[in-house]
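Section: Multi-chain targets

For targets with more than one molecule, the full set of components is provided together so that the structure can be written out for the assembly as a whole rather than chain by chain. Components appear in the order listed by the source. The example entry contains two components.
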Amino acid sequence: MRAVIMDAPGQITVGERQDPRIIEPTDAVIRLTATCICGSDLWPYRGVEPANHTPMGHEYVGVVEEVGAEVTTVKPGDFVVGSFVISCGRCEICRSGYPSRCVHAVFVAGNIGTQSEKARIPHADGTLVAAPGQPDADLVPSLLAASDVLGTGWFAADAAEAGPGKTVAVVGDGAVGLMGVLAAKQLGAERIIAMSRHADRQALAREYGATDIVTERGDEGAARIKELTDGLGAHSVIEAVGTEESFLQAIRSTRPGGHIGFVGVAHEGVTLPMDEVFFAQVHLHGGPAPVRRYLPELIQLIWDRKINPGTVFDLTLPLDQAAEGYLAMHERRATKVMLTL
Amino acid sequence: MRAVIMDAPGQITVGERQDPRIIEPTDAVIRLTATCICGSDLWPYRGVEPANHTPMGHEYVGVVEEVGAEVTTVKPGDFVVGSFVISCGRCEICRSGYPSRCVHAVFVAGNIGTQSEKARIPHADGTLVAAPGQPDADLVPSLLAASDVLGTGWFAADAAEAGPGKTVAVVGDGAVGLMGVLAAKQLGAERIIAMSRHADRQALAREYGATDIVTERGDEGAARIKELTDGLGAHSVIEAVGTEESFLQAIRSTRPGGHIGFVGVAHEGVTLPMDEVFFAQVHLHGGPAPVRRYLPELIQLIWDRKINPGTVFDLTLPLDQAAEGYLAMHERRATKVMLTL
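Its structure, encoded as tokens over all components, is:
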């Protein structure tokens, strides 16, 4: 089958990989309908993380081709959405709502790779969720978004306790931050402040429910959030970047007792000053999003056309042109690239 | 009046200060019954923080002598317990449960100083809570503990979401950590693991409700917690030290999705690696404890003799011997020193 391989940082090829097959009785093999390129794929692309003939991709929707003997919740022919972390669904951590830290967790990225025609998904019952039927073509981008970027933004908004009566600030205007805006709106937030200095992303943020835009960054951005909130700071802040600067911006934008949901992947070497965290007296929760927890709800919202997160994809290419997709995101010509099969 | 002054790091004198008087109509003047020395008083004592003729002390119980015209909830003759942070009780932050970050907050330490015969307490209604009557002498140490060390341990246990069915681990066997054990027990925790290598503190931890003692520290300590919790880590972890090592020990002892309540004061220069915080996927909440939120409940528990936190004081001295009290805590001959008047 064809699959995207990162031979080395910045070197994308669409080559041949062996077709996947059922190995464990809990496996499913799916034929991909669509996949995409994640902001986190740019880390190895830019050499910040290693890449050595790495199978790429961790977001996916497709049709089940075959299942192992023990799979009970999906069957051949089902249209499914999967999480970017393999999870068993049965361990104590999964049952407590953290499938992203399942005791059997495997990151799809780098291990399975779903920028490909097919994929073997272990622990299919705990990882995949079937849509109510075969989706109309226009729903596919939104269902694909649920696989990571929407699920991650949703987790961030949930972790930040966005909800009725709350003012939510969003640090980061990438795809995840924008999905955080959409999630905050759905969760009933009263006021949603998107922090962005890019006109196109500001427009998308407004489409998703942002009521205010703040263009300042860093301490100036935090000061602006305080101005907008009677000097107190936002109740809920979504951190969707992952640098020390963005983290401090989030902390300084949050009122005492408020909540920060952080989903920007922090890399080695990023540190946080604990005295500032201590005296800020905020709640912090985040990490790799437990997307599987939210998938049934997100799929239904999309199916019922109550949300339309698929508009976050601003470039669609066939899988064979993956290299151009990576380059477009690297050069910031695209926010999020969908790859079709 | 007599009062404890830290002339310079390590130099304690009991000297004369002007008697306090009502300045604002929201003030109260109290005559101290007892006060104490906090672990955090050792920071300036050891020169980690500055000290220059600093009025010391921030924990206090006493009898109201006089109140300003606008004070309505306490009156002369009332026996009161106060928080170590002055709070108005009326601002949005106070009403949301975070009086320690009141918009009018003033730290008693360094500004008011309650290692003294009397003290002026601003925002008396928002800071002080009257006991149901004049306490028996044996209740005074416990009521004094509520002023900070119990209230702080209680906040840590609450922030860590200690409760029925939960396994709670406590990092730090100082007075606050021990109070965290007591609080976890009261909140209904099923299993409480105290991390301590000192026999006397282990005994006190058991008295307060610890079911297990772990003597290992750092990564060995975290590994031991995992062994005791099916490899998953504790649901709730109290961090009551404030160093990078103790923080990492707490994070590594917590299961994914679990909660850390941190109350060990982190000093400038203490940093936390964000990649580890990210992938740990725990909840973090802490800071200077909003003691005033808990005071009514804690005073009642003490009054009804349901808890006896006063046993955390293992040395009692008259105020005039404060210097010996500081030295005993500095040399770890005492866990917590009460000063009587």
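The first helix of chain A runs from residue 42 to 45.
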